Protein backbone atom coordinates (compact mmCIF):
# COMPACT_ATOMS: atom_id res chain seq x y z
CA UNK A 1 0.00 0.00 0.00
CA UNK A 2 1.41 3.37 -0.98
CA UNK A 3 0.66 6.51 0.96
CA UNK A 4 2.32 9.83 0.21
CA UNK A 5 2.45 13.01 2.17
CA UNK A 6 3.58 16.17 0.46
CA UNK A 7 4.40 18.86 2.91
CA UNK A 8 5.94 22.29 3.19
CA UNK A 9 5.21 22.68 6.89
CA UNK A 10 7.93 24.55 8.75
CA UNK A 11 6.31 26.64 11.45
CA UNK A 12 8.73 25.94 14.32
CA UNK A 13 8.02 29.27 16.00
CA UNK A 14 4.27 28.68 16.11
CA UNK A 15 4.90 25.28 17.61
CA UNK A 16 7.18 26.68 20.31
CA UNK A 17 4.61 29.39 21.02
CA UNK A 18 1.78 26.92 21.41
CA UNK A 19 3.51 24.73 23.98
CA UNK A 20 5.33 27.50 25.81
CA UNK A 21 3.23 28.48 28.75
CA UNK A 22 0.87 27.02 31.26
CA UNK A 23 -0.94 30.34 31.48
CA UNK A 24 -4.68 30.03 31.40
CA UNK A 25 -6.96 32.17 29.28
CA UNK A 26 -10.43 32.97 30.56
CA UNK A 27 -13.27 32.80 28.08
CA UNK A 28 -15.61 35.72 27.64
CA UNK A 29 -18.55 33.45 28.30
CA UNK A 30 -17.80 31.89 31.67
CA UNK A 31 -14.96 33.09 33.91
CA UNK A 32 -14.84 29.69 35.60
CA UNK A 33 -14.00 28.06 32.25
CA UNK A 34 -10.36 28.64 31.40
CA UNK A 35 -8.44 27.75 28.26
CA UNK A 36 -4.84 26.60 28.27
CA UNK A 37 -4.21 28.29 24.94
CA UNK A 38 -5.48 31.18 22.89
CA UNK A 39 -7.30 30.28 19.68
CA UNK A 40 -4.19 31.09 17.64
CA UNK A 41 -2.02 28.87 19.85
CA UNK A 42 -4.60 26.09 19.68
CA UNK A 43 -4.69 26.32 15.88
CA UNK A 44 -0.91 26.17 15.64
CA UNK A 45 -0.76 23.16 17.95
CA UNK A 46 -3.50 21.35 16.03
CA UNK A 47 -1.63 22.05 12.78
CA UNK A 48 1.63 20.69 14.20
CA UNK A 49 0.02 17.56 15.67
CA UNK A 50 -1.95 16.75 12.53
CA UNK A 51 1.08 17.40 10.35
CA UNK A 52 3.19 15.01 12.45
CA UNK A 53 0.40 12.42 12.49
CA UNK A 54 0.00 12.43 8.73
CA UNK A 55 3.75 11.87 8.37
CA UNK A 56 3.68 8.81 10.64
CA UNK A 57 4.56 5.45 9.11
CA UNK A 58 3.67 2.65 8.49
CA UNK A 59 0.27 4.36 8.76
CA UNK A 60 -0.66 8.02 8.80
CA UNK A 61 -2.64 8.74 11.93
CA UNK A 62 -4.80 11.42 13.49
CA UNK A 63 -4.74 12.03 17.27
CA UNK A 64 -7.96 10.69 18.76
CA UNK A 65 -8.58 13.85 20.80
CA UNK A 66 -9.81 15.39 17.54
CA UNK A 67 -12.98 13.25 17.56
CA UNK A 68 -14.53 15.53 20.14
CA UNK A 69 -16.14 18.61 18.67
CA UNK A 70 -19.74 19.03 19.80
CA UNK A 71 -20.99 16.45 17.29
CA UNK A 72 -18.26 14.01 18.35
CA UNK A 73 -19.15 14.33 22.04
CA UNK A 74 -22.81 13.71 21.22
CA UNK A 75 -21.92 10.66 19.08
CA UNK A 76 -19.74 9.31 21.89
CA UNK A 77 -22.65 9.79 24.28
CA UNK A 78 -24.79 7.67 21.93
CA UNK A 79 -22.05 5.01 21.86
CA UNK A 80 -22.19 4.74 25.66
CA UNK A 81 -25.82 3.59 25.40
CA UNK A 82 -25.33 1.00 22.64
CA UNK A 83 -26.07 -2.62 23.60
CA UNK A 84 -22.64 -3.75 22.33
CA UNK A 85 -20.73 -1.08 24.28
CA UNK A 86 -20.56 -2.78 27.70
CA UNK A 87 -17.87 -0.41 29.02
CA UNK A 88 -20.00 2.48 30.27
CA UNK A 89 -22.76 0.51 31.93
CA UNK A 90 -20.26 -1.83 33.60
CA UNK A 91 -18.24 1.09 34.97
CA UNK A 92 -21.40 2.89 36.10
CA UNK A 93 -22.46 -0.21 38.04
CA UNK A 94 -19.08 -0.31 39.80
CA UNK A 95 -18.81 3.38 40.47
CA UNK A 96 -21.10 3.99 43.51
CA UNK A 97 -19.35 1.41 45.69
CA UNK A 98 -15.88 2.25 44.38
CA UNK A 99 -16.54 5.96 44.94
CA UNK A 100 -17.67 5.37 48.53
CA UNK A 101 -14.62 3.24 49.27
CA UNK A 102 -12.16 5.57 47.52
CA UNK A 103 -13.58 8.58 49.38
CA UNK A 104 -13.32 6.74 52.71
CA UNK A 105 -9.67 5.88 52.01
CA UNK A 106 -8.47 9.17 50.50
CA UNK A 107 -10.70 11.69 52.33
CA UNK A 108 -10.71 14.14 49.39
CA UNK A 109 -12.16 17.67 49.52
CA UNK A 110 -11.30 18.53 45.94
CA UNK A 111 -12.37 16.50 42.92
CA UNK A 112 -10.86 16.77 39.45
CA UNK A 113 -12.23 14.82 36.52
CA UNK A 114 -10.02 14.37 33.44
CA UNK A 115 -11.76 13.81 30.11
CA UNK A 116 -15.03 14.61 31.84
CA UNK A 117 -17.00 14.87 28.58
CA UNK A 118 -20.64 15.68 29.15
CA UNK A 119 -20.01 15.27 32.89
CA UNK A 120 -22.45 12.58 33.97
CA UNK A 121 -20.21 10.31 36.06
CA UNK A 122 -18.85 13.13 38.19
CA UNK A 123 -22.20 13.25 40.02
CA UNK A 124 -21.62 9.85 41.63
CA UNK A 125 -18.23 10.94 42.98
CA UNK A 126 -19.58 14.26 44.20
CA UNK A 127 -22.42 12.41 45.92
CA UNK A 128 -19.94 10.18 47.77
CA UNK A 129 -17.78 13.15 48.83
CA UNK A 130 -20.81 15.14 49.92
CA UNK A 131 -22.19 12.19 51.93
CA UNK A 132 -18.84 12.02 53.74
CA UNK A 133 -19.09 15.77 54.51
CA UNK A 134 -15.92 16.54 52.58
CA UNK A 135 -16.90 18.21 49.33
CA UNK A 136 -15.41 21.67 48.59
CA UNK A 137 -14.51 21.99 44.91
CA UNK A 138 -14.79 20.28 41.56
CA UNK A 139 -12.73 20.92 38.41
CA UNK A 140 -13.66 19.48 35.04
CA UNK A 141 -10.75 19.06 32.60
CA UNK A 142 -11.32 18.27 28.95
CA UNK A 143 -9.96 19.10 25.53
CA UNK A 144 -13.50 19.75 24.28
CA UNK A 145 -14.67 23.27 25.04
CA UNK A 146 -18.24 22.59 23.83
CA UNK A 147 -18.50 19.65 26.25
CA UNK A 148 -17.28 21.81 29.15
CA UNK A 149 -19.45 24.77 28.14
CA UNK A 150 -22.41 22.41 28.50
CA UNK A 151 -21.40 20.46 31.62
CA UNK A 152 -19.94 23.23 33.81
CA UNK A 153 -23.07 25.44 34.11
CA UNK A 154 -25.18 22.34 34.67
CA UNK A 155 -22.93 21.20 37.50
CA UNK A 156 -22.90 24.68 39.06
CA UNK A 157 -26.70 24.81 38.92
CA UNK A 158 -27.04 21.36 40.48
CA UNK A 159 -24.67 22.14 43.38
CA UNK A 160 -24.94 25.84 44.19
CA UNK A 161 -22.57 25.73 47.21
CA UNK A 162 -19.80 23.95 45.34
CA UNK A 163 -16.74 25.75 43.91
CA UNK A 164 -16.79 24.65 40.27
CA UNK A 165 -14.34 25.34 37.47
CA UNK A 166 -13.25 23.89 34.16
CA UNK A 167 -10.03 23.78 32.18
CA UNK A 168 -9.87 23.31 28.41
CA UNK A 169 -6.60 21.46 28.01
CA UNK A 170 -4.78 18.29 27.06
CA UNK A 171 -4.32 15.81 29.90
CA UNK A 172 -1.07 14.62 28.31
CA UNK A 173 0.65 18.00 28.51
CA UNK A 174 -1.36 20.40 30.66
CA UNK A 175 -1.96 18.80 34.05
CA UNK A 176 0.44 21.31 35.65
CA UNK A 177 -2.35 23.88 35.32
CA UNK A 178 -4.13 22.14 38.21
CA UNK A 179 -1.45 23.40 40.61
CA UNK A 180 -0.29 21.50 43.70
CA UNK A 181 -2.50 18.85 45.26
CA UNK A 182 -3.74 18.27 48.79
CA UNK A 183 -6.98 16.46 49.73
CA UNK A 184 -7.39 15.83 46.02
CA UNK A 185 -8.99 12.95 44.11
CA UNK A 186 -8.46 12.85 40.35
CA UNK A 187 -10.93 10.70 38.42
CA UNK A 188 -10.03 9.46 34.95
CA UNK A 189 -12.98 7.35 33.96
CA UNK A 190 -14.48 5.61 30.96
CA UNK A 191 -11.29 3.78 29.87
CA UNK A 192 -10.04 7.03 28.31
CA UNK A 193 -6.58 6.03 29.56
CA UNK A 194 -6.87 3.27 26.93
CA UNK A 195 -6.64 5.93 24.22
CA UNK A 196 -3.12 6.84 25.41
CA UNK A 197 -0.31 4.82 23.83
CA UNK A 198 1.18 2.52 26.54
CA UNK A 199 4.63 4.08 26.01
CA UNK A 200 3.15 7.42 27.14
CA UNK A 201 1.21 6.08 30.14
CA UNK A 202 4.12 6.18 32.67
CA UNK A 203 4.69 9.85 31.73
CA UNK A 204 0.99 10.51 32.23
CA UNK A 205 1.12 8.83 35.67
CA UNK A 206 4.18 10.89 36.63
CA UNK A 207 2.49 14.11 35.64
CA UNK A 208 -0.67 13.14 37.56
CA UNK A 209 1.52 12.30 40.58
CA UNK A 210 3.12 15.75 40.33
CA UNK A 211 -0.22 17.46 41.03
CA UNK A 212 -1.10 15.15 43.93
CA UNK A 213 0.10 15.41 47.53
CA UNK A 214 1.16 12.29 49.42
CA UNK A 215 -1.92 10.14 50.04
CA UNK A 216 -4.07 11.85 47.35
CA UNK A 217 -5.88 9.52 44.94
CA UNK A 218 -6.22 8.80 41.24
CA UNK A 219 -9.23 6.67 40.27
CA UNK A 220 -8.84 5.20 36.79
CA UNK A 221 -11.41 3.31 34.69
CA UNK A 222 -9.83 0.50 32.67
CA UNK A 223 -11.30 -1.80 30.07
CA UNK A 224 -9.92 -5.31 30.58
CA UNK A 225 -8.51 -7.89 28.17
CA UNK A 226 -11.26 -10.31 27.12
CA UNK A 227 -12.40 -12.41 24.19
CA UNK A 228 -11.97 -10.91 20.75
CA UNK A 229 -15.63 -11.28 19.71
CA UNK A 230 -16.92 -9.17 22.58
CA UNK A 231 -14.25 -6.52 22.10
CA UNK A 232 -14.73 -6.24 18.35
CA UNK A 233 -18.54 -6.10 18.67
CA UNK A 234 -18.20 -3.09 21.01
CA UNK A 235 -16.36 -1.15 18.29
CA UNK A 236 -18.45 -2.37 15.31
CA UNK A 237 -22.00 -1.71 16.49
CA UNK A 238 -24.94 -2.74 14.35
CA UNK A 239 -26.39 0.78 14.15
CA UNK A 240 -23.16 2.23 12.79
CA UNK A 241 -22.81 4.92 15.48
CA UNK A 242 -19.12 4.08 16.03
CA UNK A 243 -18.53 4.34 12.28
CA UNK A 244 -20.10 7.82 12.29
CA UNK A 245 -18.00 8.77 15.35
CA UNK A 246 -14.88 7.55 13.54
CA UNK A 247 -15.65 9.53 10.38
CA UNK A 248 -16.34 12.62 12.53
CA UNK A 249 -12.59 13.15 12.91
CA UNK A 250 -12.45 13.95 9.18
CA UNK A 251 -15.24 16.54 9.57
CA UNK A 252 -13.21 18.10 12.41
CA UNK A 253 -10.16 18.25 10.11
CA UNK A 254 -12.29 19.94 7.46
CA UNK A 255 -13.67 22.49 9.93
CA UNK A 256 -10.44 23.27 11.81
CA UNK A 257 -7.80 22.97 9.10
CA UNK A 258 -9.77 23.58 5.90
CA UNK A 259 -9.16 19.98 4.77
CA UNK A 260 -11.23 18.52 1.95
CA UNK A 261 -11.82 15.01 3.24
CA UNK A 262 -15.00 13.37 1.95
CA UNK A 263 -15.99 11.45 5.12
CA UNK A 264 -18.45 9.26 3.22
CA UNK A 265 -15.60 7.99 1.03
CA UNK A 266 -14.02 6.33 4.09
CA UNK A 267 -14.99 2.99 5.58
CA UNK A 268 -14.88 2.37 9.35
CA UNK A 269 -12.44 -0.37 10.41
CA UNK A 270 -12.00 -1.64 14.00
CA UNK A 271 -10.19 -4.81 15.05
CA UNK A 272 -8.49 -6.28 18.10
CA UNK A 273 -4.71 -6.60 17.99
CA UNK A 274 -4.14 -9.26 20.65
CA UNK A 275 -0.38 -8.79 20.71
CA UNK A 276 -0.63 -5.09 21.44
CA UNK A 277 -3.77 -5.69 23.57
CA UNK A 278 -5.65 -2.86 21.89
CA UNK A 279 -8.55 -2.18 19.62
CA UNK A 280 -7.35 -0.23 16.65
CA UNK A 281 -9.70 2.03 14.71
CA UNK A 282 -8.90 3.08 11.18
CA UNK A 283 -10.55 4.80 8.25
CA UNK A 284 -10.08 3.09 4.90
CA UNK A 285 -10.33 5.04 1.64
CA UNK A 286 -12.91 3.39 -0.60
CA UNK A 287 -11.01 4.68 -3.65
CA UNK A 288 -7.78 6.48 -4.37
CA UNK A 289 -7.90 10.04 -3.13
CA UNK A 290 -5.83 13.13 -2.67
CA UNK A 291 -6.71 15.24 0.35
CA UNK A 292 -5.49 18.76 0.95
CA UNK A 293 -5.06 19.86 4.57
CA UNK A 294 -4.04 23.49 4.11
CA UNK A 295 -4.17 24.42 7.79
CA UNK A 296 -1.50 21.79 8.46
CA UNK A 297 0.32 22.51 5.20
CA UNK A 298 -0.09 18.91 4.18
CA UNK A 299 -1.46 16.87 1.35
CA UNK A 300 -2.29 13.21 1.79
CA UNK A 301 -2.43 10.86 -1.18
CA UNK A 302 -4.04 7.53 -0.43
CA UNK A 303 -4.49 4.60 -2.80
CA UNK A 304 -7.86 2.79 -2.81
CA UNK A 305 -7.86 0.74 0.42
CA UNK A 306 -5.28 3.07 2.01
CA UNK A 307 -5.82 3.55 5.75
CA UNK A 308 -5.47 6.22 8.43
CA UNK A 309 -5.21 5.18 12.09
CA UNK A 310 -7.60 7.23 14.21
CA UNK A 311 -7.56 5.55 17.65
CA UNK A 312 -6.11 2.85 19.82
CA UNK A 313 -8.12 1.65 22.80
CA UNK A 314 -5.88 -0.39 25.10
CA UNK A 315 -7.23 -3.29 27.13
CA UNK A 316 -5.52 -3.95 30.44
CA UNK A 317 -4.78 -6.59 33.06
CA UNK A 318 -3.87 -5.81 36.65
CA UNK A 319 -0.21 -6.87 36.20
CA UNK A 320 0.08 -4.68 33.07
CA UNK A 321 -1.17 -1.66 35.04
CA UNK A 322 1.20 -2.40 37.92
CA UNK A 323 4.13 -2.59 35.50
CA UNK A 324 3.26 0.84 34.03
CA UNK A 325 3.00 2.34 37.54
CA UNK A 326 6.55 1.40 38.53
CA UNK A 327 8.59 4.43 39.68
CA UNK A 328 5.89 6.96 38.79
CA UNK A 329 5.13 8.17 42.31
CA UNK A 330 1.82 6.25 42.36
CA UNK A 331 0.96 2.83 43.75
CA UNK A 332 -2.05 0.63 43.13
CA UNK A 333 -4.19 0.39 46.28
CA UNK A 334 -7.52 -1.13 45.19
CA UNK A 335 -8.95 -2.87 42.15
CA UNK A 336 -12.73 -2.84 41.86
CA UNK A 337 -14.11 -5.12 39.16
CA UNK A 338 -17.36 -6.81 38.09
CA UNK A 339 -18.15 -10.53 38.36
CA UNK A 340 -17.25 -11.11 34.70
CA UNK A 341 -14.04 -9.05 34.93
CA UNK A 342 -15.07 -6.90 31.98
CA UNK A 343 -13.95 -3.58 33.46
CA UNK A 344 -12.01 -2.30 36.46
CA UNK A 345 -11.71 0.85 38.51
CA UNK A 346 -8.19 1.15 39.90
CA UNK A 347 -7.55 3.33 42.94
CA UNK A 348 -3.98 4.63 42.91
CA UNK A 349 -2.38 6.65 45.71
CA UNK A 350 0.45 9.18 45.67
CA UNK A 351 3.43 7.71 47.45
CA UNK A 352 5.93 9.55 49.64
CA UNK A 353 8.83 9.05 47.19
CA UNK A 354 9.41 11.43 44.36
CA UNK A 355 8.70 9.86 40.99
CA UNK A 356 11.63 8.90 38.77
CA UNK A 357 12.22 10.97 35.62
N1 LIG B 1 -15.41 10.51 30.98
C1 LIG B 1 -16.54 10.36 30.07
C2 LIG B 1 -16.20 10.74 28.62
C3 LIG B 1 -15.21 9.83 27.93
S1 LIG B 1 -15.00 10.29 26.23
C4 LIG B 1 -17.04 8.96 30.16
O1 LIG B 1 -16.44 8.17 30.87
O2 LIG B 1 -18.05 8.64 29.53
C5 LIG B 1 -13.35 10.90 26.30
C6 LIG B 1 -13.30 12.35 26.77
O3 LIG B 1 -11.92 12.70 26.90
C7 LIG B 1 -13.90 13.33 25.77
O4 LIG B 1 -14.73 14.23 26.45
C8 LIG B 1 -12.72 14.01 25.12
O5 LIG B 1 -12.99 15.34 24.74
C9 LIG B 1 -11.68 13.92 26.23
N2 LIG B 1 -10.31 13.85 25.72
C10 LIG B 1 -9.81 13.03 24.77
N3 LIG B 1 -8.48 13.22 24.61
C11 LIG B 1 -8.14 14.21 25.49
C12 LIG B 1 -6.92 14.86 25.81
N4 LIG B 1 -5.79 14.51 25.20
N5 LIG B 1 -6.93 15.79 26.79
C13 LIG B 1 -8.10 16.15 27.42
N6 LIG B 1 -9.28 15.57 27.15
C14 LIG B 1 -9.32 14.62 26.20
C1 LIG C 1 -13.35 7.47 25.07
N1 LIG C 1 -12.81 6.12 24.80
C2 LIG C 1 -12.50 5.43 26.03
C3 LIG C 1 -13.64 5.31 23.89
C4 LIG C 1 -13.00 3.91 23.75
O1 LIG C 1 -13.73 2.95 23.93
O2 LIG C 1 -11.82 3.82 23.49
C5 LIG C 1 -13.78 5.96 22.54
C6 LIG C 1 -14.48 5.10 21.56
N2 LIG C 1 -14.00 4.75 20.39
C7 LIG C 1 -14.87 3.99 19.78
N3 LIG C 1 -15.90 3.76 20.57
C8 LIG C 1 -15.69 4.47 21.70
Compile the SSE list and pairings.
Elements (H helix, E strand, L loop, with lengths): L3 E4 L4 H9 L4 E2 L6 E3 L3 H17 L14 H11 L5 H21 L3 E5 L7 H10 L5 E6 L2 H14 L4 E6 L15 E5 L12 H10 L6 E7 L4 H7 L6 H17 L8 E8 L4 E8 L3 E5 L4 E5 L4 E8 L3 H8 L4 E8 L5 E8 L7
Parallel strand pairs: 3-6, 4-5, 4-7, 5-6, 7-8
Antiparallel strand pairs: 1-12, 2-3, 8-15, 9-10, 10-13, 11-12, 14-15
The protein binds S-adenosyl-L-homocysteine and N,N-dimethyl-L-histidine (AVI).
The site of N,N-dimethyl-L-histidine has 12 residues, from helix 9 and strand 13.
Tags for this entry?
binds N,N-dimethyl-L-histidine; 15 strands; alpha/beta; binds S-adenosyl-L-homocysteine; globular; 9-stranded mixed sheet; about 350 residues; 3-stranded antiparallel sheet
Descriptive notes:
It is a single chain. This protein has 357 residues and is an alpha/beta fold. It has ten helices and 15 strands. The chain has a nine-stranded mixed β-sheet with strand order 2-3-6-5-4-7-8-15-14, sandwiched between helices. Strands 1-12-11 form a three-stranded antiparallel β-sheet, with helices on one face. The protein is globular and about 60 Å long. The relative contact order is 0.17. N,N-dimethyl-L-histidine binds at residues 79, 87, 190-192, 194-195, 235, 242, 245, 311, 313.
Amino acid sequence: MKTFLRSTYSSQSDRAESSKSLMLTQTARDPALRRMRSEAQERALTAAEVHAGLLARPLPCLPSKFFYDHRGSVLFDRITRLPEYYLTRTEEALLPEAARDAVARVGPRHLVELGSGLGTKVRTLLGAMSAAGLLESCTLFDVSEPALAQSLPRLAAERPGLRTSAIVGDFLTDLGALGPGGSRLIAFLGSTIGNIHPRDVPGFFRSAASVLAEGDGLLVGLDLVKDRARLEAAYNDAQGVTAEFNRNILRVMNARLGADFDPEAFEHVAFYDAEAAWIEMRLRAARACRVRVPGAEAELVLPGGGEIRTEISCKYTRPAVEALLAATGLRLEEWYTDADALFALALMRRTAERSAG
